[in-house]
Sequence to fold (408 residues):
Amino acid sequence: MGDLSQRVFLVTGPWHLVTLASSLETERRRDPGRPRSADHLVAWGGERQGALRASLVPVAKSLHSWASVTDVGAMLDVPSADHLEVLGERLRSLGIPRDVDELWIPAFWPHTTKVAAAVWGRAEIVLFEEGLLTYSLFRRFRMLPFLRSNLRRVLAGSSRGGGLRHLRDTLRRLGGDPRNLLWEEGAPRSLLRRTRRDYRVLRSIFGTQPDFPRWIERIDVPREVVLDQLDAYRRAVGCEFPPASRGRGRVLFLPQNLSSGGWMEEDVEVAIYVGAVGRLVAAGHEVLWKEHPRAVPSLYPRVAAAFPGRVAEVRVEPTMPVEAIAPDLGVDLCCGIYTMSLAYLPFLHGIGSACIASECLPHVRRHDELVRGLTLMARETPSLDEVLGDRPASRLAPLGRAHGGEGR
Fold:
């Protein structure tokens, strides 16, 4: 294996695995003569996702020829840069190479970029799913919050070695570039300079097309490739649904894990769902509830109790992404909060989408990334009220066209 190029791929859940397999198939079709490589899949996430990741391993092995498939749990959620060297050695002890040619990641999340910068510091970066879109959609001015939270420590010093050391460590986390103190662009510039390709399923998110660094090659993953990989994934999981006839009265409702994630009070989350489901039921819709895989406990019993006989639960293996089952449920609308299914379902299956993120925003506990994401969803997606006709559905038609995609 020493003559083969080494590549590491990071995933946290089923949809990452589907879009990664679709990206690899697109790579194979574009370059059938590409030299073989040793591909190492790394599944990671918190303790609550342990059973989910464990069930992904055999599925992953059926979708690609991997040199290794390893579940590292929460190992990559390192608390500070001081732990990165130890982390690198632990990964190597599991058979995951430290010196790799390419590192494939689904998004520029803060903890992902920290690990990518230090553990696999010489690897070229390749993005998949909608990784590059996470780069500039969340661009924001960083200096004021940085000064507010750190200036006192920098000037007065700290018990861990003084303010200058703290400033140096902060710059190190930001890629060593002082300009990163001014703007948070989803990734340090040092990582952007290492990024070579982006395999994108969606050309835009809800019609929004950010400006990207010009040196990053953007490769469109064809729609038919994603559908083929979804079929292969379903066969590997062994989950089949009897197709239901599609009707305008059936809605797929996708809640989040806001209270179980610690971002909202459970009673408030239930009240938001009861309000949204109530409007759907009042408009004559049948509601199918698909619980979030990380929502513990499930809120379905509390919501369904308010509407006897009008809300049914869709129960599938937690490894099954909703994009794989939605066509067989006979739905013509999907209602959600902070899920990319609101973009993928129109693109892949022509299913409409509606969002209730604006109703959640006032009640979310401070969490900058979540608040920015909810704000984006509320701004760019048609609201449930718009779809039900309470307000003009000005953004409903452009959403379908944006994800229809010529030549996909």
Observations:
- The radius of gyration is 22 Å.
- The chain has 17 helices and 14 strands.
- The chain has a mean pLDDT of 77.
